[in-house]
Design a protein that fits this description.
The complex is a heterotrimer of chains A (about 290), B (about 140) and C (about 290). Helix content of chain A is about 75%, strand content about 0%. With about 290 residues, chain A is mainly α. Chain A is built from 15 helices and no strands. Chain B has a domain of about 80 residues. Chain C has three domains: about 70 residues, Serine Threonine Protein Phosphatase 5, Tetratricopeptide repeat (Alpha Horseshoe); about 80 residues; about 90 residues. Chain C starts with a helix and ends in a 7-residue tail after the last helix. The chains are: A mainly alpha (about 290), B mainly alpha (about 140), C mainly alpha (about 290). The interface between A and B is large, with 39 and 39 residues.
Chain lengths: ~290, ~140, ~290
């Protein structure tokens, strides 16, 4: 015991102790400076995480990139790709995810994110052509791939293929979209025009423009009557002017009925497309929960 | 179709600079007395339109509830299609203008109060209608 | 043994002083580092690099564990967004600054800044509401002049020059902005007068605001259409009379009144804009 103390004493009394102390102090100071430099890699990492969580992606990316210039971290590379994708910068996003495929633990996540970008870029056939047998997000991938049929312009596949993968809540929407896309309630342009050729305005009413249809009937009728009346009274010039006006509105209405039907159809189509888009947006493109994000 | 991908779009997702902030009031829209020198028919049409503006349209008040106005509609319709089709489109527009039942429940409208009624959608061309404003007030 | 204890005391003393030194230095250095971060952000702000300034203020806020810069940083972020014309974000951060404000001065400063953002954003009613609220606040009873000054600005930018004149007069009857507002009021055309004279004599409203050609043509159309209408009735062509009267005469008569109003308004907007341009480019005092 005493021996120990003596040893200690010798140690503390030696010059060596003071050197040691000096080094210790310097070292501590150095360490401290590291931890309080706001721009040290670690602090940039922490600040970046805060910005990312606040969805301040552009600033977060800056911090992450600075950290990555001296360190390696695949989580950050993934988060940068994710942030670019969220901001709509798909080419940068793809660059990051592609780097992660093959040499990181985020292979599956990156592959899924790349698929999502295919969807966002409307490269639907590319999206569906990929298959990943070992993908741990198999369900999510299939959901996204099958859903893309609804957004695509091509012929719809068999409903069994499409419906089998979704859960009950999703199926309500998917089934509705599928049926509406398969049998859209379109109006025929030709039929609208023919209707209006027989009864002015009828085609417009058929295409859902009741007010315009009645107006067309009144205008054509009124000018025809005035033309007839003036012919009867032998006011030739006036009669021909009214005949011209009547023909003008009659022809315009036939044309307009076809146009109205086309606009009606476009409305049906675009509304459906919009609903399809809104739903997948709400579902966040069937993205699985990544536990290292949020 | 890409309309909701930027749903969470933030101000800071793109780097911005200091803005030049104006105090001034918005001036009243003026008629566009431009001449279309691209083609003879264009020149003829725009001249006729300008004469119409100067002698009639500028003096008889604001009667057209649509944007673009009926005269502008006619000029662009002819430009986008041909004189025959453009005239048919104009007759149809005139019918819509005469419709007493038209209302804001039916048409989308601009913040300055005019109904949204663009020319392209009446051209009967395939796939030109690729956008319908989602809200009833259309941005200018 | 005693020497050992003494020595132990000695060691303890060294360690104690080391610890004190260390923590003192830590505290001072942390303070210094945050302060220099604030200066760095301020310098970016002064160089008009507002986007980057926001990043650095956010960094300051993030590492400022004692929240000593909470007001300053949030306020400056709000100001940066304002100068980039990102008004909703600006108001969001100014509200955070207001919440972090400790002194009355800071509360006042952030509230007035929110008013200014509302003025620039042209959401005048929100600005007005906030100004009234500040005016009623007992803490700010001695700040009436500033409140009136910004109320004046709000009124100028919302094209209420008479109101603006009143507000500036409340500060000083010779206030330069009062004179400016009065000048604008004097220069402006009366829209009502233009309309009334156009009811009586078509075209005269346009003459009043200097649009002579348009006035003459309006008068011409009205005489022509009026003649046709009256003539039809005189010749007992009642149907023609009604049609021409409605579709032609009434149309140009209404158009004439609309034009009288439009031209007077146009002139007035130009007069207002001239004054507003002066305020933006040449006025030396405080601006929103």
């Amino acid at each position: 015991m005493i021996n120990n103390f003596v040893q200690c004493r010798i140690f503390f009394n030696s010059k060596f102790f003071f050197y040691h102390l000096l080094i210790l102090l310097l070292f501590q100071n150095f360490g401290f400076a590291q931890s309080t430099n706001l721009f040290s890699p670690n602090n940039r990492f922490k600040f970046g995480n805060y910005l990312f969580q606040e969805r301040d992606y552009l600033r977060a990316i800056d911090e992450y990139k600075s950290y990555l210039s001296t360190n390696k971290n695949d989580t950050l590379n993934f988060k940068i790709g994710f942030a670019y994708s969220r901001m709509g910068n798909y080419s940068e996003s793809e660059r990051y995810f592609k780097k992660l495929i093959g040499k990181s633990i985020f292979i599956d996540e990156s592959k899924f994110e790349l698929l999502k970008i295919n969807y966002l870029r409307e490269n639907f056939s590319d999206l569906r052509s990929k298959s990943f047998p070992s993908n741990k997000f198999r369900t999510e991938t299939l959901k996204l791939q099958h859903y893309s049929y609804l957004s695509d312009e091509i012929e719809l596949p068999d409903s069994n293929l499409l419906f089998s993968i979704y859960n009950d809540d999703e199926l309500i929407f998917v089934r509705d979209f599928y049926n509406r896309k398969l049998n859209p309630e379109y109006k025929s342009k030709t039929f609208a025009a023919i209707l209006s050729a027989f009864i002015p305005g009828a085609g417009k009413i058929y295409a859902g423009e009741t007010g315009d249809g009645i107006t067309a009937l009144i205008l054509t009728g009124l000018f025809s009557f005035l033309a007839y009346d003036n012919f009867q009274a032998d006011h030739k010039i006036r009669a021909w002017i009214f005949t011209g006006l009547s023909a003008f509105f009659y022809a315009g209405n036939i044309y307009g009925s076809a146009a109205a039907a086309q606009i009606y159809n476009a409305g049906i189509k675009l509304n459906l497309e919009n609903e399809i888009q809104v739903f997948i947006n709400q579902k966040k493109y069937f993205t699985p929960r990544y536990d290292f994000i949020d | 179709m890409i309309l909701s991908t930027h749903l969470f779009a933030q101000v800071d997702w793109e780097k911005w600079e200091a803005a030049d902030i104006s105090y001034e009031l918005k001036s009243i829209d003026k008629k566009n007395y431009e001449f279309d020198t691209g083609s003879l028919s264009g020149l003829l049409m725009s001249s006729m339109k300008n004469i119409y503006y100067f002698t009639i349209s500028d003096l008889d008040g604001d009667n057209c509830p649509f944007h673009p106005s009926c005269s502008n509609f006619y000029v662009s319709a002819v430009k986008q299609t041909n004189i025959f089709k453009g005239t048919l489109m104009f007759a149809d527009r005139f019918t819509r203008d005469s419709n007493l039942f038209k209302s804001r429940n039916h048409y989308k409208f601009y913040s300055h109060g005019k109904f949204h009624d663009p020319v392209e959608i009446y051209t009967l061309k395939e796939n030109v209608i690729n956008h319908i404003p989602q809200k009833s007030v259309v941005d200018d | 043994m005693t020497s050992l204890i003494k020595n132990n005391k000695h060691i303890a003393l060294i360690f104690f002083s080391m610890a004190v030194l260390f923590f003192a230095e830590l505290k001072i250095s942390a303070q210094d580092i945050l302060l220099s971060q604030k200066n760095y952000a301020d310098s970016l702000f002064d160089e008009s690099k507002y986007f980057d300034a926001i990043t650095e203020y956010k960094r300051l806020l993030f590492f400022d564990e004692t929240n000593q810069f909470e007001f300053d940083a949030n306020f400056k972020i709000g100001m940066s967004y304002k100068l980039g014309a990102k008004y909703s974000n600006s108001i969001k951060y100014l509200r955070l600054a207001q919440r972090a404000a400790e002194a009355n001065e800071e509360t006042f400063k952030s509230k007035i800044e929110i008013v200014k953002v509302n003025i620039l954003r042209k959401t005048f009613s929100a600005g007005k509401l906030l100004l009234n609220q500040i005016e009623k606040d007992e803490r700010f009873t001695d700040r009436t002049d500033e409140i009136n000054y910004w109320r004046g600005w709000l009124r100028m930018l919302s094209d209420d020059w008479e109101g603006a004149s009143e507000s500036f007069a409340a500060i000083d009857s010779l206030h330069p902005l009062k004179t400016l507002s009065d000048n604008v009021v004097d220069e402006k055309y009366s829209v009502t007068f233009a309309k009334v004279i156009s009811y009586i004599l078509p075209g005269s409203g346009q003459f009043y605001s200097g649009k002579y050609l348009s006035g003459l043509m309006s008068l011409g159309w009205n005489i022509f259409a009026g003649y046709l209408t009256v003539n039809s009735f005189l010749e007992d062509r009642v149907f023609d009379g009604i049609i021409i009267g409605n579709l032609l005469w009434l149309r140009f008569y209404n158009g004439n009144i609309q034009n009288a109003e439009k031209f007077a308004l146009e002139k007035n907007i130009n007069i207002s804009n001239k004054a507003l341009r002066y305020l933006k480019n040449n006025y030396e005092g405080k601006k929103p």
